[in-house]
């Protein structure tokens, strides 16, 4: 089938433009821009709404295997499609961890039932315990797109050096969580007046800088391709800038929650606002927004982390960290657009183009020859977020009851429509 999208506000993250135009799709690929509709094409009038590359989301937690009650591949895929996310990059922090080719092959088969594309990261060390590296070569052959121990940070520098060196020899990407594990152990908030008044165990923002500095020293030693999953504090930015200026193969990401929320949103111990790392000060939030705007931070992710009611309805210190975010990712990002911090093209550069480029994927573009993974959305449509309407199995969103703007109207994967908004 040939599709011809007309009267669309094309959001082009490569060119940094937002222009009214058209897009033609054939056999799952974009074949032309701003041309006439080919004979026999199905014409889709976008009504002046935004048409952008589908979001490529690095670091999505899916509960298979081990926690399917929290999220399955099917429910995650439906949520992603409804949120304009066309490619999920799943984390290996499952039960058991994705640390062998057999487990990776199992989740790859299970992921086939999802309406969106799913690629998997594998564990960097066995059991994600930071001591012995996994069979990186075999895992890569089995389809692992990157290697990470997710939020577990190894204290074994020698083991990390071996794993990074081996990954470097294979050209594999290593994704790390920059935190000093000793300082951050048991912490539920960022240190400061707010955490002290609330009596919440806290961690200094320096823990992130210390963890990043350690990682970057290992990157300099080994030459590995490295991605920091979440940079959330201003104090970590100079180290990141130095590493990039030195020519190290380094990129960095942050989460949509750390771009749109701050430590005060925790309020009276609201556990839906508990994250790893914890929410930061407003000064840090604005610094990270500015870093995304100037390109210092390359990627924005949802860091989708489903948690059931039982694990959230606990005292703040004991409650599980994280939030579902596949469906709230785009409307939360629209807060940055409407506040004047980032243009739509800049947002999709960080949410689609840059993650696809870092992972060597052809998605994230509107150029001819790219896969027709697209999201049609209205950036101005207002709505009231109701967590019980989310398609994720878990409903732990900090945006429940919030007034938001930005609705996904349709999502396409390889030219096939996988989501259509209800009228």
TrEMBL record:
GO CC aspect terms: cytoplasm
Highest taxon listed in the record's lineage: Bacteria
Keywords: Hydrolase, Pyrimidine biosynthesis, Zinc
Record-annotated Dihydroorotase catalytic domain positions: 48-233
EC number: 3.5.2.3
GO function terms (MF aspect): allantoinase activity; dihydroorotase activity; metal ion binding
Domain Amidohydrolase: 341-419
BP-aspect Gene Ontology terms: purine nucleobase catabolic process; pyrimidine nucleotide biosynthetic process
Keyword Hydrolase: yes
NCBIfam families for the chain: pyrC_multi
Entry protein name: Dihydroorotase
Organism encoding this protein: Tabrizicola piscis
């Amino acid at each position: 089938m040939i599709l011809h999208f007309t009267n669309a506000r094309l959001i082009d993250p490569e060119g940094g433009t937002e222009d009214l135009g058209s897009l033609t799709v054939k056999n799952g690929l974009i074949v032309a821009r701003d041309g006439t509709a080919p004979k026999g094409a199905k014409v889709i009038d976008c009504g002046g709404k935004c048409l952008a590359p589908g979001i490529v989301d690095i670091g999505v937690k899916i509960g298979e295997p081990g926690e399917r009650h929290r999220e399955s591949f099917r429910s995650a895929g439906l949520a992603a499609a409804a949120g304009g996310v066309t490619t999920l990059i799943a984390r290996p922090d499952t039960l058991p961890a994705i640390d062998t080719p057999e487990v990776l092959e199992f989740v790859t088969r299970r992921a086939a039932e999802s309406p969106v594309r799913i690629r998997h990261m594998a564990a960097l060390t066995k059991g994600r315990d930071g001591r012995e590296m996994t069979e990186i070569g075999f895992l890569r052959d089995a389809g692992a797109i990157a290697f990470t121990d997710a939020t577990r940070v190894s204290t074994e520098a020698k083991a990390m050096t071996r794993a990074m060196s081996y990954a470097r020899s294979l050209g594999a990407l290593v994704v790390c969580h920059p935190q000093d594990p000793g300082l951050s152990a048991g912490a539920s908030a960022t240190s400061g007046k707010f955490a002290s008044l609330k009596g919440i165990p806290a961690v200094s923002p320096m823990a992130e800088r210390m963890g990043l500095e350690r990682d970057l020293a290992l990157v300099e030693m080994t030459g590995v391709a490295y991605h920091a999953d979440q940079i959330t504090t201003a104090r970590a930015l100079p180290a990141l800038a130095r590493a990039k200026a030195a020519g190290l193969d380094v990129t960095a990401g942050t989460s949509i929650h750390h771009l749109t929320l701050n430590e005060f949103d925790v309020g009276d111990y609201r556990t839906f606002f508990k994250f790893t790392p914890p929410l930061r000060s407003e000064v840090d939030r604005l610094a990270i927004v500015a870093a995304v705007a100037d390109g210092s931070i390359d990627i924005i992710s949802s860091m989708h982390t489903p948690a059931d009611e039982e694990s959230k309805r606990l005292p703040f210190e004991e409650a599980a960290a994280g939030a579902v975010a596949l469906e709230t990712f785009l409307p939360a990002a629209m807060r940055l657009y409407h506040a004047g911090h980032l243009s739509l093209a800049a947002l999709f550069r960080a949410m689609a183009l840059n993650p696809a480029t870092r992972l060597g994927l052809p998605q994230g573009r509107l150029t001819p020859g790219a896969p027709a993974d697209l999201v049609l959305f209205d950036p101005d449509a207002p709505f009231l977020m109701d967590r019980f309407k989310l398609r994720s199995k878990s409903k732990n969103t900090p945006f429940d009851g919030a007034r938001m703007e930005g609705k996904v109207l349709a999502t396409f994967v390889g030219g096939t429509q996988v989501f259509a908004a209800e009228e």
